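I hope you will forgive my troubling you with a question about protein structure. The matter concerns a single protein, recorded as an amino acid sequence and a row of C-alpha cells. Please examine both parts with care and let me know of anything in them that strikes you as inconsistent. Thank you for your consideration; the sequence and its C-alpha cells are set out here:
***
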Amino acid sequence: MGTLHDILIITRWEVKRSFTMMGRNVLPLAVVLFVLLVLVTGFTATSGLHLQDGMYTIGVDDPQIASLSTL
C-alpha cells in the first residue's frame, strides 16, 4: 500500500501545481471534455466500431480453408 500512497501524494502535488499554472475556470471545461471522452469511448465500444475491422484480406485456393475464413 506504500506505492499507492506515494502515487496519491504525487497526484496531489501535481493537481495543486496545475491549479497555479491554469486558472480555476479551466476545470469545468476539463471535466466536460473528460465526460465527453468517456461517453464517446463507451459508444464506440458498444456499437462495434473498431479501427482494426477489415484490415486484412486473405485469399486461398482450397474451398475447405476458405470456409474457415468466413467464420
